[in-house]
């Protein structure tokens, strides 16, 4: 009976594994391995065996088998019959009832174990960064260092190559004697290898002070070839909801990669900051979190509870009467600028991203909150309205003031439903020369219309 029960529990566990891993494959598995087999040991722990020879213990997932019930008491012998007749045998006692089987404990997505697994994945997506600068002050030349964080955006383990995303202010200093202010010596360090003899040299591809995003490249690194590091899994930041758990992975105080947790406080807002170039100020669209953020976290990843990248940490409020107010650049912006830099700057002298402009200005109307009963989440929804069209733009005589933009797509990509004003701005970061931007909109007669615009060089604006 015990063998039959264990077989049943293994089947239940396999169903749980299929449900968990089937819905979150990017959360648990890398591209290079898959599940080979599973087993439940004597402690009730679920063991996952992978095709690359590794295994993972997900902890107790089934309760212990219930104890077997005691055997029933035998019946008394019958009394002797009269006249020498034998008495009848007493009725045998019934067997005791078997003990109930132990209950199955399901590890759900809100458990500490799930958060720990997400953090473990994020650690392998993260790097600490060290930069060296040289400046001249009072006629004297001096060298100094700074530290920050980054995430691995793309990786080729076989070639030892990686693309790293960080903040521009991590690798830039306005006092540097270099012509562009970028550190001439940038090193990245993988988690667990944060020692000088494991420094990996990185080169600067490009960046933007206005977006505070920089892109670095690593080539032919034996350390990467022989490591367990991996690239991040991206989640569209426009799908993130206030109240979701957030995980920040960074290099606080320059003392090594560390993790902190909190929640998303505000999904989108604008903050004004002094420009890192030392001239004027810049406005950043950010997400606000109460996740602890400290110097050195800059450039590190902000992740959701499943270990998906939702932003790049870039600032915190340090006023004495303010607590737990940190900021991160949404992934929709950070990855759009990263792809833009890789397209326009990799292998050439230019280091600034190029924004595609349709020559229109947009605003919002009818803002309100909507509760989605199917997900249990509340989102802000807005009408995205055309406020003006430049006289020399490609949109002239096509889009008009007060048209309501409903969706946008690039080439044959999936259409993005425009429910917030910033979504059309973010989407255009991914449009390059030669791409076709498709827009669906409602005109003044509330008729649904479609328009397409091919991006040309004359529509580009450098955004350093």
Characterise this structure.
- The protein has about 475 residues and is mostly beta strands.
- The chain has four domains: about 1-65, no CATH class; about 125-225, Thrombin, subunit H (Beta Barrel); about 235-335, Trypsin-like serine proteases (Thrombin, subunit H, Beta Barrel); about 355-460, PDZ domain (Pdz3 Domain).
- It contains seven helices and 23 strands.
- The protein has helices at about 1-25, 25-30, 110-125, 170, 220-225, 330-345, 420-425; strands at about 35-40, 45-50, 55-60, 125-135, 140-155, 160-165, 185-190, 200-210, 215-220, 245-250, 260-275, 280-290, 300-305, 310-315, 325-330, 355, 360-370, 375-390, 405-410, 415, 435-440, 450-455, 460.
- It has a six-stranded antiparallel β-barrel with strand order 4-5-6-9-8-7. A six-stranded antiparallel β-barrel has the order 10-11-12-15-14-13. Strands 17, 18, 19, 20, 21 and 22 form a six-stranded antiparallel β-sheet that branches.
- The longest helix has 22 residues, at about 1-25.
- It is globular, with a radius of gyration of 30 Å.
- The termini are far apart.
- The model is unreliable at about 10-30, about 85 and about 100-110 (pLDDT under 50).
